[in-house]
Amino acid sequence: MTATNGPEKYTGGFFQTNAYVLPTPLGGRVLIDAPEGVADWIKARGWTLDALLLTHAHIDHIQDAAAILKQHGCPIYYHADGVPLLVDTSAYRRFGLSVDFEPVTGGEHITEGPGQRFAGVGFDVLFVPGHCPGSLCFYDAPGKRLFGGDVLFAGSIGRTDLPGGNHDLLLRGIHEKVLTLPGDVVVYSGHGPETTVGREAASNPFLV
Question: Is residue 132 part of a domain?
Answer without folding.
Answer: yes
